[in-house]
Amino acid sequence: MPVNTRRSDDGQTRIIAIEGRFDFSTHQAFRDAYETNSEGVRHWVVDMSDTTYLDSSALGMLLLLRDFAGGDNASIRIENCNSDVRRILTISNFEQLFSIR
Questions:
Q1: Of the residues 19, 27, 70, 98, which has the fewest C-beta atoms closer than 10 A?
Q2: Which string of DSSP letters, residue by residue, matches 62-98?
Q3: Bridge partners of 16?
Q4: Which of 23, 45, 42 minimizes the C-alpha distance to 33?
């Protein structure tokens, strides 16, 4: 499965790890990852350690996560991007909407 989730020990942070291509084919799995059992989650981490590619539909999915998590008040970090993924996020000005590490 290209999308894996886990919760922090205190239950307040949901980590969503994307493996391989982050594109429209992962839409439902990504949506399930943040919508299912999200009670009590206050912080979100999208771990892109193993993400090899990201397209415009993935950018849209990140925006849907942001809306779900509280919009401007959302606490979302995108972590461990490779240089290609990071470049796409930078060109798209996602650094203004998300914390990218």
A1: 70
A2: HHHHHHHTTGGG--EEEE---HHHHHHHHHTTGGGTS
A3: 5, 46
A4: 45
Helix, strand, coil share of the chain (percent; to 5): 40, 35, 30
Instruction: From first to last of the 101 residues of the chain, give the pLDDT tens digit.
Output: 599 999 999 989 999 999 999 999 999 999 999 999 999 999 999 999 999 999 999 999 999 999 999 999 999 999 999 999 999 999 999 999 999 99
Q: What is the distance of C-alpha 28 from the center of its chain?
A: 13
Provide the token pair at 53: 């590619």
pTM exceeds 0.85? yes
Give the residue among 15, 25, 29, 32 at the shortest CA–CA distance from 68.
32
